[in-house]
Amino acid sequence: MAVIDRVTATPASALPPAVADIAERGERRGQGEACAGRAGDDGVIVQRLSRRYGDRLILEGVDLHIAPGQFLALLGRSGSGKSTLLRALAHLDQDTAGAGRITVPARRAVLFQDSRLLPWLRVLDNVKLGALGPDAEARARAALAEVGLAGRERAWPRMLSGGEQQRVALARGLVRDPRFILADEPFSALDALTRLRMQQLLLQVCERHAPAVLFVTHDVDEALLLADRVIVLESGRLSLDRLVPTDDADAGEREALRIRILNQLGVAPDAKHRAAGRQGKPSLQPTTFS
Ligand SMILES: Nc1ncnc2c1ncn2[C@@H]1O[C@H](COP(=O)(O)OP(=O)(O)OP(=O)(O)O)[C@@H](O)[C@H]1O
Ligand SMILES: [Mg+2]
């Protein structure tokens, strides 16, 4: 099937009303003006996106707008098409059949579960890969400092822990001052403590740079912790699209959303406790599904 209109430059004024409305609601929680969009940055606009592999339709007419500065978590069962959607928005699926319109900022950073560092380049040179221009080295050093790795510039990737390698991958994206960060389960291979630290780091980075974010996760609690808005992908379409109640909202509101998401994913909220013989006790583990 021919692939049409993969990238367009649709002006905000040409957006359908529903999209414009979502854009209005796009301020990051608790950040006010700091995360308002920059001039010329319309965020991410997806219109009637479809993707197929052979006979299998994976995405079926997906419409989505991510406002500048908005942190969107994408959930869905394994195989529901989350990575397919992310790859399409990163323009990493040029060989995949489909249709639809995608408008994304040119300055993007993509994070995967593994850091994808080049083993034959030192840390600083890996980060410099993301930078252009005469001040590339200075910006690469600044990005490394931002993720807490100042002093490790000359290390080889194999000398770093998994969490440190993910920090370098984040720094490699930050040197471009990205307007859009796409992350496909970036912390799922990390131990619980490192994962918490990386979540905090990502939130700090997002406060500072205010990019639109598409964050794929299997962990409902991680989604609610990080995101302003949560969507669920099911049978090729978005089956749920909700703003996350702010931190100071009634705790019951967040819990209601959590249960709604778990139900949407086909997981009984207390199934994990029953399975572990821990009924009635609070979970110490992330609430994941597959
Ligand atoms: N290159 C490919 N060729 C054929 N089928 C593919 C290809 N990539 C993905 N698929 C299929 O498309 C469907 C969606 O895959 P995708 O990787 O987007 O799912 P996902 O939601 O990210 O799953 P997971 O949570 O397990 O990562 C799956 O059934 C997968 O087998
Ligand atoms: Mg995936």
Can you give a write-up of this model?
- This protein is α/β, with parallel strands linked by helices and 290 residues long.
- It has a domain of 194 residues: P-loop containing nucleotide triphosphate hydrolases (Rossmann fold).
- Helices cover 31% and strands 21% of the residues.
- The chain contains 9 helices and 9 strands.
- The strands form 2 sheets. A 6-stranded mixed β-sheet has the order 5-6-7-3-8-9, with helices on both faces. A 3-stranded antiparallel β-sheet has the order 2-1-4.
- Strand 1 and strand 2 form a beta hairpin.
- Helix 4 crosses helix 5.
- It is globular.
- It starts with 16 loop residues before the first helix and ends in a 15-residue tail after the last helix.
- The N terminus is likely disordered.
- The chain binds adenosine-5'-triphosphate and magnesium ion (MG).
